[in-house]
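Protocol step 4 of 6: structure prediction from sequence.
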Amino acid sequence: MRILLARHGETAWNAEGRYQGQEDIALSPVGETQALAIGGRLREVSINRAEASPLSRDRRTAELALGEERASMLKLDPDLMEIAHGTWEGLLASEIRERDGDRL
């Protein structure tokens, strides 16, 4: 058995360095291009099962990487969601250090 893992494509918050956690931030155009590039690498790979988090960035990355003919095999699993960052979600690391530096 071989297991392949791929991280979701870029979002605007990734590009800005913001904590995302479970905020449902969509892929940026760069992220969609990255997902399609993953698909290019997977084109000749036999895939029996595909799972992703239900967050739109993860689901869309998987759909684009799998392509139309294989996207129907995708199963969404909430257990694959990123950890929640609570009140830090959407903040830059510098903002967190300034606000909650004693908790880091």
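Step 5 (inspection) to follow. The longest strand covers residues 50-52.
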